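tmp note - CNH domain-containing protein
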Amino acid sequence: MSMKAFELVPAIERGKLTSDKFKAQIESIDVCGKNLYIGTSDCFIFHYCIEERNQAGKIAFHSEKQGHKYLGLKKPIVQIKAASALNRIIVLCDNTVTLLNMFDLEPVFSGAKIKGVVNFSVNDNPIRSNPFSVEVCVALKKKQLQIYTITEDRIVHVKDLPLPEPAIITGIDEHYVCAALNTQYCMIEVETAFIQDLFPYDNENTNPMVKKVTKEEFLLSGPSALGMFVTSAGISQRPPMQWSDNLIAVSCVQPYIVAMNDEFITIHSILDQQQKQAIPFQGGVFMDDFEGRLFIASAREIYSLVPVAFEKQIEALLYDKRVAEALELAENAHKTGMTKDKFMKIYKRIQQQAGFIEFSQQHFDEAQKLFLNGEVDVREIICLYPDLMPSGSNFTRSSPPLHEIPSISILVRNNDSVMETYKSFLRSFLEDVRNTKQSVGLKQEIDVALLKLYAENNSAELIPLLVSDTSCELADCVEYLERYQRHHALALLHKYHGENEKALHIWTRLVNGEIQDKSFQGLEFVVEFLANLNDHELVWKYLDWVLEKNEEFGVQILTQRPANEVQSERLRPDAVIDYLHRFPLAVVTYLEYLVFQKKLEKEKYHTHLAVLYLDKVLSLTKNHGSKKEDVDIARCKLRHMLQMSNLYRVQLILGKTKETEMHAECAILYGKLEEHDKALRILVHKLKDFGAAENYCLVNSQGKEASYRKRLFHILLSVYLDPSYETKDNLVAPAMSLLNSNVADFDTVKVLQLLPDTWSVSLLSQFLSRSLRKSMNKSRLARIETMMARGENLHVKQTCIELQQEPVILNDDRNCGVCSRALTDPTFIRYPNSVVTHVHCAKNKYVCPVTGKLFSTRPS
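out:
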């Protein structure tokens, strides 16, 4: 099927002209709206009314003769041009331009004419935009062009343009004239009369042509049967066009150039300069385009070249798999006057059709680009692949069809590598469109197809597809996932559809090693899922299995629950603790979660955890094979628990620790019982850890009064100075260090009473100096505070006296400034600007509620 851009349709046939007493040969024609004018070789002008009709899908013309006129010169009518705005036709006959009435063909009364004219052209884009005038350029026999403005009954001379040699044919657009002289083409700028030579030609072998193509661009017939495009700047922006010899006429109807010689009418694309169609036609004498319509005349007949609908032209190109040409033609279809919406609808369908052609030829990059730009329905592609469409889909292919591919199998022909490339293309395309507007309403088809492709290829993208918001249905995907042993993906699909027990059943089999899947993350994944599952019965069902596998992981199901989860009886802490007794590591971890993370203040939880910590320490110390590092860590946990908690049963824990060498723990417990003397004696005499003793005083006095803090340090000092201690002299140094410490706090008088009489003043000089400075500073601060309080008191008294100097008089006529009600209460509010209100009406003591005035918030 070859491309067909135009059809040759009779406009006025020979028989019609003969019946209208038409005897001579056609020389020229012009069409304006429904009016067709014919100029003959014997000086007649015929006027016809033609009407374009659509008969059974084909264009046909109906013509009716309106009249004719004999000009009496016995010369051929060389040119005719209708000026509808003036109701005139411009006629060139016997080298003279005259004006006739469009309808009765009578000459104008003024008899205006131009003589010595070889050719004329009308400026469709005149600079002087008077709607009731026409600008023409005439070529004279002498070496000159002239610019005229033609009105209804006058021809006004505007400008002369001298030439180096006579012009044969001209074309004008805006303020540029392109002219074919005797031996060369040239471009003339009207305003300046500047002439730019273009190129020479052989007038014996070349019929000169000048045809306007676009704004300020002309097509010229050049040497060697070449069509040359030239702009007003004198340059060519398109490659030359090759056409046949013996050229008679040329016309332009976007996006085509139509050329006529003595045997054929050829149609060339202006986009790629290639010939697209050839129509046999002999005896042609005239051809031109009129308002986008092409008319051709032979000696006794007139035809119209009717454009074939762009859709049909493009369809023909696509049928021949000339995709680039079809798209190029489609992109220029909007220049034909088509509305934007209609153009975009047609253009997108053409892109889709072109995409399937590229797809069938394995040009996947081009196909994907066309599918995306053409916004193809993805189901048109998916349905070509066997078993990829959802079972419940009721999709039917586009009508008329976009392609003739029944199935991908026809293109693949049992070639596995080719099949893989087609599947790879589909994966890439679906991934690109999945989250775009093309996927709206089609997410199920896209996701099901992707899942099946991923499952077959064991792609790493399978799991992310199911973890995100997927539209895959169980009925479409279970069999595929089972076939390719994608067990973890199958479990995730069950989970997505709320079938959690089926998902857990698959995961337990994977953990137990009954089935294999490399994409499964192991027991940790199951723990995370159960920790976030709100079906507590199902959690409880699988909890024991997980704990048997790994206590550390299993207890996370209980400790990593969602913060906003509704509590249930099955997961009540007491029930959980009772259940976890079989799992010692898990019960400790769970109690730590309750005490340290949840911060539950229940004595039994704290006591239970402390006892378990203590049992752990005792077990490790009794086992001589235990590592010292493990024992230290266990004791550190125990001490932290004993120190930070105040809720456990101290006597119970102390009873167990006194029987051991756990002196540090006993000291903490005595401290909880407020038996600080015992605690400090353990730290000083048994552990000989003087830093720990000092830290004990600081820790146990936190948040309490200064007197309590001093009491603890006095107890520590008394322990250091206890005369009953055998090696009391060894404690002099730590005692002095304590007295000179910056963190310790003492009552100096009580310290002096405790110190032995044998200690020298020089030994105590640092302590005494600091104590004296501290006492003097305290005394001076007290005096300053006293004086400041006295000054503030005097200021208040002054303010009170000043306020009492101006009385506030209340009577029955005085109302609240805010609510305007009577001031009946003995208490009221008076602002500095004398506004008086109820106490409850005064919202802000610094802002007057009536005037809004802001009073100073700083004390005077």
